Amino acid sequence: MSTPAISIQNLTKVYPIPFKREKVTAVQDLSLTVEAGQVYGLLGPNGSGKSTTMKIVLGLVTPTSGKTEIFGRDSTTVESREDVGFLPENPYFYKYLTGEETLHFYGKLCGLSRARIRDRSKELLKLVGLEDAAARRLGGYSKGMLQRIGLAQAMIQEPRLLVLDEPTAGVDPAGSREIRDLILDFKQRGITVLLCSHLLEQVQEICDRVGILDHGVLIREGVLGDLISIENQTEIILENAPPELLAQIREMIGKSSGRLVAEHRPQKTLERYFLDVTGPKQS
Amino acid sequence: MTAAAPIATKHKIFSPARVTAIASNTLLELVRLKVFYFLLLFALLIIGSSFFTSKFTFQEQFQVLKDVSLGAMSIFTWLLGVLATAMLLPKDIEDRTLYTILAKPVPRFEYLLGKFLGVLLLLFVAISLMAGVFLVILYARQQDALANAARLVPANALQEQLADIRAATFNKNLLPGIVIIYLKSALCAALTLLLSTFASSSIFTIIMSVIVYLIGHIQAIARDAYLASQTTTALTKAFLAIVALLIPDLNSLTLVDDIVVGNAISMVLFVKTASLGLTYIGIYFLVGYFVFSAKEL
What we know:
The structure holds 2 protein chains of 2 kinds.
Chain A lengths: L5 E11 L6 E12 L4 E5 L6 H8 L7 E6 L2 E2 L9 E4 L11 H11 L4 H14 L15 H12 L6 E5 L7 H16 L3 E5 L3 H7 L2 E6 L2 E7 H5 L14 H13 L14 H9 L5
Parallel strand pairs in A: 3-8, 3-9, 6-7, 7-8
Antiparallel strand pairs in A: 1-2, 1-4, 4-5, 9-10
Chain B lengths: L15 H17 L5 H14 L6 H37 L2 H6 L5 H45 L2 H15 L4 H25 L3 H27 L5 H13 L9 H6 L5 H27 L4
């Protein structure tokens, strides 16, 4: 069995409240594993401990107790971050740098050679669709473009794990779709993704596995399909079915022990409809 | 591009390349804030001071010019060091840029060192530019005085007068004086960096830094006054000793007065003053690092 991308064992984080004797438990006895190549959704309401967990994984916060590892390396060590790319929620990079300069800066921090940084920047700017904006300063970037350059900087050293905190927060539906497609692209390349998001529909679309945190406790965890499928129901979607066929099916159901719960036309999502009407017109 | 083969080089415990990347980016960040506009103010100040000294003797004119210029350099570099340093960490935390940097294989020591070196570079550029403006004006005034002397002074006393003018303008005290001004501003920047590692905002950091600066300047006078008093308790003495240990006597970290009155600055005095500054810079930076390394981000 391969080494998990993230291994969290009995993680607890307690924050003392300044000038008071009370303490706040942000994460309590959390254990979870994210296997390599998975897209893992970490869900939970505000204040549930998602960000704290993520920060501990990234070594930005020290755990009170427990252990976290990234590809088998203790995540409190600086070396473990060689394998990680991180995009925080609503990031503001240095506005005076251009898109290309931003990637060069982060490439230098990762110890890449000058030639490698140049190649990687070119490759990533193309991947995130910012080739034309490479020479523009980030101060003039839209929210969606900032998120995309953020994804590119996270990928600069070609990490095996991407940690994304609300990657589509504040981005319009088209931009959100682009970011989602990028995440799916990363997944296809075998990159593990830990995703924190409030957009449950999006999580449902891209995640293999989810964990739900509430008040610092992992209350549900598992393969997404298993968690949300209704065990005793079956959905059949027919195309161009004549009324006679439908009548026959209803009759057969009536004769069986099963019960017809609902019968309706499938609907496209509002997002799909929005993208259809606002997207580029077909000639 | 596949996930199977990470391309990062083997992690180094300390990487000058990473520190240089952070330092040069910090310098760029500060320069983009247009901090060098204050140089115009500096130039106006020392050119303006010339108008008020035209009736003075040349010795007095040069004395005032040096006093105003070196004093202004001292204040401007201090202000620049404090204001620039105070905003660095809070801004990176607020914009979450710090997270993206520390989520890369960058040790916190290197991040802090890079930021500090960026400020030191900025101060170096600023003091070099100010010193350049000062020396150009001093040279222009010297040439003016030499021309006047050649016109007005009798031939038998001319050589002596010219030598006096030259001695009153440029001498070997100027460079150590400027170096100490730089070190003093670097010390104040290191102190501000230390304060910003645990302060909650830039404003708080600036206020604290100004207070410490004032304490640094008045503590020697206060200490002498208290210790001369018969009623000083052991507790007060202990308190004064702690203050003296934590905050250097900033009055002793200047050679401007000696330069202005023309006292010779010995190598011993220079080395002693510079060592005091460097020691406190080192201590403040290291304490700042220890606070920052334990900081929950």
